[in-house]
Amino acid sequence: MRVLLLMRGAMGCGKSTFIKQNGLKPYTLCADDIRLLCQAPVLGKDGNYCISQKNEKVVWQTLFNILEVRMKRGEFTVIDATNTKTSEMNRYKDLAKKYRYRIYCVDMTDVPIEVAKERNKKRDPIKYVPEEAIDRAYARFATQKIPSGIKAIKPNELDTIFYKPIDLSTYDKVHVIGDIHGCYTALMEFMNNHDVNANDFFIFLGDYLDRGLENVQTLEYLLDLWENHKNVYFLEGNHEAHLRNWAHGEDIMSPEFRNHTMPKLEQAGIDKKRVRQFCRSFGQCSYFIFHGMNVLVTHGGLSTMPKNLTFIATEQMIKGVGDYKDANTVDGAFYTSTEDGYYSVHGHRNETHEPLQVNPTTFNLNGEVEFGGDLRAVTFRHEKWLDKSFIDQWEIPNSVYRIPEDVTKNNDEISNAEIHDVIEYMRASKYIGEKSFGNISSFNFTRGAFQDKVWDGMTTKARGLYIDTEHEQVVARGYEKFFNYGEMEFTKPEALARNLKFPVEAYVKENGFLGIVSTDNDGELIFTSKSTMGGDHAVMVKENLYKIYGEEAIEKMREYANQYRVTFVFEIIDRERDPHIIQYNDNYAILLDIINNDMKFDKLPYGSLKYVAKDIGLEYKQHYKTLNNVKELSDFIEKATDPKFRLKTDRINDDCIEGFVFEDANGFMFKLKVAYYNDWKMLRSVANKIFRSGNINFTGALQSIESNYFYGWCRDKFTELDKQGRWAYSKRDIIDLRDEFRADMKAKGIEYDR
Q1: Which of 124, 120, 144, 147 is nearest to 132 (CA)?
Q2: What angle do CA 304, 234, 268 make, to 5 degrees?
Q3: Which CATH class is domain 166-397?
Q4: Burial label, 278 (beta-carbon count in 10 A; 0-12, 13-18, 19+)
Q5: At what angle do helices 705-720 and 675-693 cross, to 10 degrees?
Q6: Residue range(s) of every CATH 3.40.50.300 domain in the chain
Q7: pTM of the model
Q8: Is CATH 3.40.50.2300 what the domain over 3-161 is classified as, yes or no?
Q9: Number of H helices, E strands in the chain
Q10: Partners of 437 in the beta sheet?
């Protein structure tokens, strides 16, 4: 928790002993330890080794840097130093204010100076200090006091700073309300059935705003509760950071808060001073006793009931133990690790859509109310006449919510719009470029769209989109832009778990480039790639298709495309002219999809795709697996992202494929690159830099055994080659380099797990 404990006392007064006896060592930053990291023990004038005091600037800079790292996470921290000067102690107050810490000081200055000197003589010689240093410390203690804002305690008062449970048994009921997320209507349905003026206690566990449509009403209501009722307690959730930053005029990293919540708050004229005061009142957790029940309430969820909650970092209380996806595992651990009578209540995460009561002792109050789910709450009540306690569960449906925004925003409007209007819009957008080929123009998002992450209904459609601007018809088109797993908010695990329509199909992702084949208004074939109709890649599309399939198949494809006004989308693998990362055993033109030539993205189902492909004689994409629910998807992705994951197909001469493309029952698509592909893509850049300059700036990316061997091999090659040879190696593709590297390793008898 956000508690900073300063030690104060002269050398030999017993600070380190106190820390050891009270089990505080794992939480302690010690100035002497850093001094020894900066410089080994040095010989003193008396012939004994001692700790050098000549690196004080570095020592204290390092200590404060580490301290700030810990304080960002809200970790309980002890500072083992003499802290003789008032000015030294004031330095901690700035950080404490920034990270909302309480500061205590264990005052050991009343230890008699004679005792300190005697103990000093008996210390490890390395820690012995001259007696004049002790005299100087005591002189400062007499003249420089502990500054205001830091509470002094005696060694026997340590227990007073630790978090203690509060007994709420004097109340009739205790209500714990889950993540609200600006859903005022659902909140009021609960509160209107529970009188805040009654002898009840209310705990709100965080995430009060964002994503919902009623943020202003929600905040105004909660502010009123906080200002006018003593029987309410508010915890801090992860979304409260945005509210706090807004109230203090600081930068807001959340696009959701910046684009949706903040404008409404400012339009309503919410008083920022009230909000600042409100935020200062937030608790990090609530641990209460109610008629024999011990209840721990956190925002994110802990895996056990800690013996001392003060030692738990605030970050873990807010975000929970483990990753976002681990909520169910953590809940199970709490159940198995705690004795009867202990309960955990949390919100924040519920990727696998667990019920409100996960197990006999754990309750998950994340009901995704902001997305049309339920506002969840639990009530602890005691019936005196029965002398028995009960736990009531509440799930309040929410009818006022915003459909989650993603790249499909306004797609219906765009799909139904006149193509004339679409052309005009795209031409006016700085994020969409146009290339003209007679009457046909290709529209593609620009590099600026990437850099600024401007993904909307237009920019995502502008990807391999070819329009006959004279006749205002789509003549060819590729995929709408879709994204990697975890790349965007809507492809992160929690969003996918919430929004995907199962079953989800997983297809093998091939490692080539896209080729687009269709017909123009005269019924003639169009071969395109890389937003052009005549570039090198477009030529490769045409040449590979004719070479692999022959004229008869191409004519069938032309007839089908012309009759049904569709586009054939291929993955083209040209080993010689366009090598990528994965090594194939031949050139391929693999049919990925057949897409309607329309603004609305619509394509043939996989079964129909296979039928057409077989009729024409085309190879088609490989279906790998059907995933029927969130758990199957999560397990599959966890397996596929393991660095040791390997999957070969008949088409490749390599250890693994590039990855997978996923498609849900509604046609939503996202992709996943496996670790093997990502590693060798990174190593391609590493090799290029080494053969150009002899080195790379950062070797931390070299995680695998093979990547480190490859780095060393490239360095050796660099030293062996002359300038012309290095230039030639920098131009070689990564497949050739990898083959040569592996052959050299084998010749040297170096074996490793790759």
Answers
A1: 120
A2: 140
A3: alpha beta
A4: buried
A5: 20
A6: 3-161
A7: 0.71
A8: no
A9: 25, 31
A10: 440
